[in-house]
Specification:
Blueprint: H1 13-24, H2 31-66, E1 71-72, H3 74-82, E2 93-94
Parallel strand pairs: 1-2
Length: about 100
């Protein structure tokens, strides 16, 4: 039994050219290898996003629900992102409103 499945796909011209150029440069032996590597990267990114949501976002939301005084105003978030407000750093969480 084959461990692969054949697909026929349509790509925008610029993506198709990128795939061809990767093969022509010797970075990959075939177009299929380029696509497989890209899909593996996508799967890794998806796993990283899922882990971030599970490990950081959900606990932060739970912390705000448990203690609403930890919320930050949009102005505090902007100041923290701009580096202008030390009080906005740390464990406090933005309330989105």
């Amino acid at each position: 039994m084959r461990s692969t499945q054949q697909f026929s796909i349509t790509l925008p011209h610029e993506i198709a050219q990128l795939v061809r150029s990767k093969v022509a440069a010797g970075e990959y032996a075939t177009e299929s290898e380029v696509i497989r590597d890209g899909l593996r990267s996508l799967m890794a990114r998806d796993r990283a996003v899922e882990a971030w949501l599970r490990e950081q976002v959900v606990p932060a939301c739970d912390a705000v629900k448990a203690d609403p005084s930890r919320r930050l105003s949009p102005e505090q978030v902007r100041a923290a992102l701009a580096g202008g407000d030390a009080k906005a750093s740390g464990t406090r969480t933005w309330d989105g409103g």
